[in-house]
Fold these 3 entries.
Entry 1:
Amino acid sequence: MAEQKATNVHWHEGDITREHRSRLLGHKGATLWFTGLSGSGKSTVAVELEGRLNELGVLSYRLDGDNVRLGINRNLGFSAEDRTENIRRIGEIAKLFADSGVIALSSFISPYAADRNQVRELHEAAGMDFIEVFVDCSLEAAESRDPKGLYKKARAGEIKNFTGIDDPYESPWKPEIHLHSDQQSLTEEVDMILGELRERGIINA
Amino acid sequence: MAEQKATNVHWHEGDITREHRSRLLGHKGATLWFTGLSGSGKSTVAVELEGRLNELGVLSYRLDGDNVRLGINRNLGFSAEDRTENIRRIGEIAKLFADSGVIALSSFISPYAADRNQVRELHEAAGMDFIEVFVDCSLEAAESRDPKGLYKKARAGEIKNFTGIDDPYESPWKPEIHLHSDQQSLTEEVDMILGELRERGIINA
């Protein structure tokens, strides 16, 4: 390690804030909360958006089952209590990312309006952008895709409390962005989201 | 929102990876894990480092009691189990930040070696840099500072299981960085850390 020569090279301007980080990155942080049925296309849109944002020089990070359910939430099951705690924790993590300047892309079914609204309030109380993206899709279309074979298992009774089959999906009342993944192209969907991010001044690119 | 005109503007290169994010930011993500007694100066060093990194154009984010204990870990108390779960969750969050390209600055007493080592293993298994920063300081020096009046309360028996008084602090065996906050200047401490980040190729600035 280099020997310390210079002295008094302290940072004098006080704590680094959200604004400092935004200036460094050239964009603001925010949470994009994708919600919709299993198979509605949440992850597909999030992955495509992530690529487009990267091309625009915007830092985003996806929170999904792979890095959350197998990580911080590995000690949670699928009881009603655990599902609520699952969404609460994801909401808190998304908020930390948004605060850090990153655009958090949260992609979970998150079927209950009350849980989603709690995450919204958490962000809004801290002056952070929470953008609910309803990936709307008919149950028929989602079930016919069934990318993970989960609907089949739910219909066979092998999975209980499956959203859309024997557990409700509560549609957002006023999502900031309402996509229709069974009618729109992926490009259209992503462009709608980028438009919203520009309109809100979150990105300029 | 702008009408979609162009088609086929999909992102074709597959999922965005850690490497894409590093390229965008110009540095790698990592976790700097500050550990030491209450009053040892963990936060002081982390805040100063955060400012210096910002000047260098490096994105970092502090995880501390303010944004973690009052947020995602608000449902945890101070039992042995809860303390372990507290550190586990912080470790998982730091790992997500490191993966996103951000330099996570985690600043908690984290007195138990087993808990810290679990976080280390979590990072190393995923090929991420975990840098343990031992903010070493005599109990006498930490207690004489007592910035939050906690030692006084612990000595008076108003706080139980206080690290250094009636609960052990297990010093790191092989910390990547060993600071002596009662003997070094803040500038020296921060320069040691920056030196380590440069040596590891995490930052080039």
Note: Chain A touches chain B through 53 residues (CB under 8 Å).
Entry 2:
Amino acid sequence: MAIKLYYDLMSQPSRTLYILLKSLNCNLELKSVDLRKGEHYSEEFTKVNRMQRVPVIDHNGFVLSESVAIVKYLSRENIIPENLYPRESRLQARVEEFLEWHHVGLRLHCAMYFRVKYMDPILFGRKTDERQIASYERRMVSALEDFNSKWLGRGTPFIVGESVTVADLFAATELEQPRMAGYDPKEHFPVIATWAQKVREFFPHYDEAHVILNKVIAKQSKTSKL
Amino acid sequence: MAIKLYYDLMSQPSRTLYILLKSLNCNLELKSVDLRKGEHYSEEFTKVNRMQRVPVIDHNGFVLSESVAIVKYLSRENIIPENLYPRESRLQARVEEFLEWHHVGLRLHCAMYFRVKYMDPILFGRKTDERQIASYERRMVSALEDFNSKWLGRGTPFIVGESVTVADLFAATELEQPRMAGYDPKEHFPVIATWAQKVREFFPHYDEAHVILNKVIAKQSKTSKL
């Protein structure tokens, strides 16, 4: 069964789906949508997704947006295996409890820090006020503290118990984003660093999905050393 | 089977679960947690939910937070009926697509407007800057425009087709919140007004869950007329 994935590797949930789908044996057709060129606002893409966002999948004509909804759907369709998305009701509920929390509990704060510190100056040609950046950083650090102690650091190596699930992958790709703005959560939270390395090693396409992001970081670090 | 619901009717997702669970034939035990008294920070409640938030359920000893995860779980357990949470995979995906979008697409903006305009002055004893309120209002109105045209206004009376689902109830309780800060979405969007009335009529416990909220609004309107 063919799955088309509309994605941009600069988008965290796009990377999650790219890494997941590439690791499965499915007939995957990759459709790049360049957010920096505004391709998500094009007439052609708006016909695919009226919300003008990536990622989106087209599974045999069924078009679906929202990464978490997509993963749930692909799990029901037996495309995502049980080890990554548990079928047992209570275990599944634990994965979903994290996925629902992460939207505003983790993703929002990492994404906003990235946006105000890295994207806004590029998009609007002006530096963001230092005090404003500090305020976004405080909120992100508080979210990372919650993630570090209330989801990790509870005696098991992964968010839900002893093995990797989609919850870990969603969290890991979000935590890569602020690195482009100069903040690497792994340098501040050893528990996060150990966990992130295990998630990275588990998924064979993890590094491939982060090639562009890592290039941006390398370029930034070179510039800041000049 | 007994379900304990920890809730506060000032919390939007608490109202959603209160309305849903009261309308079903389940053995419901209501456990009020007064957010205004800070009861969610108590040692007793932190033992129930380390995230210190409501709503939470305890279903025969299984404690679960995050309203959307709770509703999914109760649907799998056949406590929420199929008409409100579809079992067919693609229809279920449509409901979940909305639920995942609504966290940051709708809820965040309605909640932040309520917080900065209504709650912050009560909590911190100072009026929020008018320009800041206007900026939060703009973001909320933009979210309401998306909701009005991209989720409603597509030729069917409800978010997912011809009948009410949990998606409608989640959205409706969120849209009540900014009314306490003086903004009623129904007064600005006729499509939303028609839809909201249908959702309200569908659930027998809708008004009961909004008694406290409506009292706050009546008091506000009285004060503003003095």
Note: The mean pLDDT of chain B is 94.
Entry 3:
Amino acid sequence: MAEQHPFDVGIALEHSDDGTLRGRTDPGWNNMVGPFGGITAATLLHAIESQPDAHGAPLTLTVNFLAPIADGEFQVSARALRTNRTNQHWYAELSQDGAPKTTATAIFGIRRETWSDTELIAPDVPVPEDLPEPGTPRGVAVWIGNYDMRVIEGPYPGPDDGPSPSSLTKLWVRDRRGRTHDYAALTALCDIFYPRSYVRRAQVGPAGTISMTIYFHADSAELQSVGDDFLLGCARGNRFSNGYFDQSAELWSRSGALLATTHQLVYFKA
Amino acid sequence: MAEQHPFDVGIALEHSDDGTLRGRTDPGWNNMVGPFGGITAATLLHAIESQPDAHGAPLTLTVNFLAPIADGEFQVSARALRTNRTNQHWYAELSQDGAPKTTATAIFGIRRETWSDTELIAPDVPVPEDLPEPGTPRGVAVWIGNYDMRVIEGPYPGPDDGPSPSSLTKLWVRDRRGRTHDYAALTALCDIFYPRSYVRRAQVGPAGTISMTIYFHADSAELQSVGDDFLLGCARGNRFSNGYFDQSAELWSRSGALLATTHQLVYFKA
């Protein structure tokens, strides 16, 4: 039997008799506290995708992080709230011992050809092959080891870095072991960016996403054509105040297709 | 008895015996089909705010529009899913005859002073007093008459306008009858922008928000200091394809405070 890719292990769910789904945290996806938010978000999207009545492909997903997920088993429920002719609205919840830990709302839909244009301009950056391969991850967060991240601008602050007037990070990223980018993988990648406050202040400290929204622009064929190639991620903060900041980010294909735009609200201490 | 401001009539809710809230669509807030999405979003935020166990002030709100709201009565339920020390997670639903029409998730929280900075740069624009007052609204959408909107750039397309390479709209907006900007009013204003596809193509056609997310940056004191003054709104689309586009927008105070950032996914036909 072929071994499952670590990403698929991370988002794996089993159907149980009461109609809910059961999953289990995977140590390979650990963050500082609980699992990487991106794998949790991907798990919730995957829960919806794998429902027999799911209709169309993801258009948007909002994930709210209510409380840390403890190591071990969790339950996921996913419920279609409304099915229209061209779209479908979902509510999903990840819980442990009956307490909700993460919630998601999603809209799935049918895409049909219309007038189209990407107004946002793709940044001009060096190709990933011209950037150094990342070293062994520093071990702060285990999940980072699952990705090959090549930072162009706005790195995770090192001991010699000083404050920066800009929180902008540009990086190339792909799965280190070559998993293709489907909607679940893209969901996880939308949460790949370390807190923008770290980049601004060159200091790490308590910080965590409390809400993340994704707008999926790529249709299935476009995603498929990207395969497991590097994606270009760009992220910046808009306003930092009173313990919270918002981040806006984009994921681009190498050929310049805007695959997803994504936004977060992050709490931080500073 | 003092007459209620039209905005407060629009978001009014009555507590009923079964713990749900009852509201009623107001013809003064009509859009082409059903009420203006902004007033619906504000009603859901207001439903949460008015719960006796609400804790802190709004940090983020995501509203999904499932189906058109019919003229008449509706029910709203709001449920705290989790209360943490500094934040609280909510789920709210607006329904008619038992069918959900609009859902919302929100996070409320306590703000505490931290390092702060607005990284996004406020655009340099003329003051609202130097721009023409809007004429009588064209009557396409009744709700527009509730606002004094003064467009700086990217107007609603007129018969003589041609396609534009940019979907950017910049406008000043305030309540026409002088209502102060609290979180509910700010929520409605986040949905003030006509579809970005109209600006690009200089054509109106079927289009509607299917999901809207708001990050509230202003604390209560900052909002209070704005009073009922004009706010500067800027909105642009990132990618238009396959019947959907995303919009990113900001609301600024006249003094340059970034009060809210907000994002939408919009369906359109073209």
Note: Chain B has a mean pLDDT of 95.
